[in-house]
Design brief:
Distance between the termini: 170 Å
Helix content: 40-55%
Oligomer: single chain
Structural class: alpha+beta
Strand order of the largest sheet: 4-8-7-5-6
Shape: rod-shaped
Length: 589
C-alpha cells in the first residue's frame, strides 16, 4: 500500500514513466528491507521546489521506524527522490485506491518501462548493426591503408632504384666525358694508351690490352696474332665487340663467345678500335664476375672515341714526320772553313705540330767571307717549312751579289711582303771576313746573339734589331759590328731555346749566357759538337718543348790552336785567320 501510494503521488505529480518506475522500484527495495527487519515503519512523502527557479520540483520519500520520535527531515537527506515537472496542484493526496487497482496501475508503469526497453533494444540493435558496418568499414579502410602503404613502399623502392640507375648513368656519362677529354687532348699514341689504362684500370677492367694492327710488323713491337685471345681476333675480323665467358653476357650489341683459353676464369670484352678504317682491338678483363650492361655500352663508345684519337694521332705523326723531313732536308750541311769552327743543332718540338719554322745556314761567299744565318718563320707545319725554304734560297741568291747582312735582310723583307703578306719571319745574319777581328751582323726582330770572350766573360749584342721580315711597312735594315778576338764564340739561336711561357725570353737569354760562360776555351776548341750538346742539355732538360729549336755556334780558335793555321800557306791571304801585313799585330784566327 505504501508503494502504491507513492506511485499514485508520482503519477498525479506528472512524473515521467521512466522516472516514476525508477522511483517506485528503488522505494520498493527499501520497503522490502524494512519488512525484513520487522517492527513498523512510517513513509513520509514531501515535494520540494528546486532552487533553480525554472518551475521543476522533486518528490522525496523518507522512511523511519514507527513508534519512535520522528527525526527532523534535513534538506537533501531523503531516502528516495523522483524529479517532477512541477509541484502537484493539490499537494500530496492521501492514498485511497484499492490495493488491486494500485497493483494494476503499477503494471502500466512496467508496460511503459518495457516499451522503453524494447525501444532501447531496437536502438541498441541499430547501433550494433551500425557499429558492425563501421567495424567492417574500418577493417576495409585499414586494408586499403595497408595496400596504399605497400604501394607507396613499392613506389619508393622503385624511385630509389630509378635514382640509383640515373645516378649510375650520370656517373658513366661523366666518366665518358672526362675520359674523352683526357684522351683527345693528346696527339701522342703512347700518351693516349697510357691515359686509357689509367682511366679503366682497376674500376672497369682488371687488365687492359691494346692490339694495334700497324705494330704487327714493327720490330719494336714483335707481336703476332697468337698472342691475342680468340675474342680479339674475332673482333678484328668481324668489326663487332665480342664477349668471351663461361656464361652469356647479355650485353647490348655484343656477341657471345666461349670462355677464353688465356683467361678461362675471367670474362673478356674485345672491342674494335677504328675510325675511318680498322686500327686495332681493345681487350678488357672483367674486374668482377660479369660485365655491367650499361658500363659495356660506355666502354664501346669510349673505344670508338679512342679509335678516333689514335687515328688523329697517327695522321698528326705522319704530318709531323713529313714536315720534319722537309725541314731537315733544307737544313745546310755546315762548311769547314779554315780558321773557323762551326756546330749546329736542330731539335723539333716535343709537343704539338710546331715544326717547320726554324732554320740555320752557313756558307762562304765569293769574296771568301763566311755568312752565318739563323731564322724563324711564324707559324708551323708544312707551309712554314716551305716558306723557310723560299727564304733560305732567296737569301743565298742575294748573298751571291756580295750584299751586306743589312742589304740581304732588306731585300728579303721586300720579297716576303710581296709573296707572303700574311706570314712573317725573324732572322739574324753574321758575316766573318778573313783577317778581321770583328763580325758584321744585322737582325730582323730576332733574339740577340750571345758572345763568349776568350776570358770566359759573356756579352749580349744588344743593338736595336730591325722589324720582322714581312711586316707591311717599308724598312731598311742597318749593319752592326762587334769585336770578336781569337778564342771567342758567337752563339746564334731561335726563341725556342730561351723562351718559356711562364718566364718570358729575358731570363732564358741570361741562362744561355751563364751556361755558355761555364764552357772553357779548350772544351770549345777541342770538340765544338760536344760543347753544343753541353749547352743545350741544361737549357732544355726541365721542360717540354712546344717550339722547335735551332742553335749555331761560331768559334774563332786561338792562334795556339792548330785549327787556326791554314793548311796551305799559299792560300793563307785569302782564308779566314790569315796573318796581317803588320808583324806587330798578332795574327787573328
Amino acid at each position: 500500500m505504501a508503494r502504491a501510494a507513492a506511485a499514485g503521488v508520482a503519477l498525479d505529480a506528472g512524473a515521467t514513466p521512466r522516472d516514476r518506475a525508477r522511483f517506485v522500484t528503488e522505494l520498493t527495495a527499501r520497503l522490502r528491507r524494512c519488512l525484513d527487519e520487522g517492527s513498523g515503519w512510517e513513509l513520509l512523502l514531501r515535494v520540494d521546489a528546486l532552487a533553480e527557479g525554472d518551475g521543476t520540483a522533486r518528490l522525496e520519500a523518507f522512511l523511519h521506524a514507527s513508534g519512535s520520535p520522528r527525526p527532523p527531515v534535513p534538506d537533501g537527506g531523503c531516502t528516495v527522490s523522483c524529479p517532477l515537472p512541477g509541484p502537484p496542484p493539490a499537494g500530496i493526496p492521501q492514498p485511497g485506491l484499492p490495493l488491486s487497482e494500485a497493483l494494476l496501475s503499477a503494471d502500466e508503469d512496467t508496460e511503459v518501462v518495457l516499451r522503453l526497453l524494447d525501444e532501447q533494444e531496437h536502438l541498441v540493435g541499430l547501433h550494433r548493426e551500425e557499429l558492425e558496418r563501421t567495424n567492417l568499414g574500418v577493417v576495409a579502410l585499414h586494408s586499403d591503408l595497408e595496400a596504399a602503404a605497400t604501394a607507396q613502399r613499392d613506389l619508393l623502392d622503385a624511385e630509389r632504384v630509378t635514382r640509383a640507375e640515373a645516378e649510375r648513368a650520370r656517373h658513366l656519362l661523366t666518366f665518358l666525358g672526362d675520359a674523352s677529354a683526357a684522351i683527345t687532348s693528346s696527339l701522342s699514341r703512347n700518351v693516349i694508351l697510357r691515359r686509357l689504362s689509367d682511366l679503366l684500370v682497376p674500376e672497369h677492367a682488371e687488365h687492359l690490352d691494346v692490339w694495334l694492327f700497324d705494330e704487327e710488323n714493327d720490330d719494336d713491337h714483335p707481336r703476332g696474332i697468337r698472342d691475342h685471345p680468340a675474342a680479339a681476333v674475332t673482333a678484328a675480323r668481324t668489326g663487332r665487340p665480342q664477349h668471351a665467358a663461361g656464361h652469356p653476357g647479355g650485353l647490348p650489341g655484343v656477341d657471345d663467345l666461349p670462355a677464353s683459353a688465356l683467361f678461362p676464369h675471367r670474362p673478356l670484352l674485345a672491342i674494335p678500335l677504328g675510325a675511318r678504317h680498322p686500327l686495332g682491338v681493345l681487350t678488357l678483363t672483367c674486374p668482377g664476375p660479369r660485365f655491367d650492361p650499361d658500363a659495356s655500352v660506355m666502354l664501346v663508345e669510349l673505344a670508338r672515341r679512342v679509335g678516333i684519337a689514335l687515328d688523329n694521332a697517327g695522321r698528326h705523326e705522319q704530318y709531323r714526320d713529313t714536315a720534319e723531313t722537309l725541314q731537315r732536308a733544307q737544313l745546310t750541311e755546315l762548311p769547314s772553313p779554315p780558321g773557323m769552327l762551326l756546330a749546329a743543332r736542330y731539335l723539333p718540338a716535343t709537343s704539338g705540330l710546331n715544326i717547320g719554322g726554324d732554320w740555320y745556314d752557313a756558307f762562304i761567299q765569293p769574296d771568301g767571307s763566311l755568312l752565318t744565318v739563323i731564322g724563324d718563320v711564324t707559324g708551323h707545319g708544312l707551309h712554314a717549312a716551305v716558306v723557310m725554304g723560299q727564304l733560305r734560297t732567296a737569301l743565298r741568291a742575294y748573298a751571291v751579289e756580295n750584299e751586306s747582312p743589312a742589304g740581304i735582310l732588306t731585300r728579303l723583307h721586300g720579297m716576303l711582303r710581296h709573296l707572303q703578306p700574311d706570314l712573317y719571319a725573324t732572322a739574324m745574319i753574321a758575316r766573318f771576313r778573313p783577317g778581321e777581328r770583328e763580325v758584321t751582323w744585322a737582325s730582323a726582330g730576332h733574339p740577340p746573339a750571345v758572345v763568349r770572350d776568350p776570358d770566359g766573360s759573356v756579352r749580349v749584342l744588344h743593338a736595336k734589331p730591325g722589324v720582322m721580315l714581312g711586316i707591311p711597312v717599308p724598312y731598311v735594315y742597318a749593319d752592326h759590328q762587334a769585336e770578336l778576338p781569337a778564342g771567342s764564340t758567337l752563339a746564334l739561336y731561335t726563341d725556342g731555346l730561351v723562351e718559356r711561357r711562364s718566364q718570358g725570353i729575358d731570363p732564358g737569354i741570361a741562362r744561355l749566357g751563364s751556361t755558355l760562360g761555364t764552357l772553357t776555351t779548350p772544351e770549345l776548341e777541342h770538340d765544338l759538337e760536344a760543347s753544343a750538346d753541353a749547352l743545350l742539355k741544361p737549357l732544355l732538360h726541365d721542360s717540354e718543348r712546344d717550339d722547335d729549336v735551332c742553335l749555331l755556334l761560331c768559334h774563332l780558335p786561338s792562334p795556339a790552336d792548330p785549327a787556326a793555321a791554314p793548311a796551305d800557306p799559299a792560300a793563307a791571304p785569302a782564308d779566314l785567320g790569315a796573318a796581317p801585313a803588320d808583324p806587330a799585330v798578332p795574327p787573328p784566327a
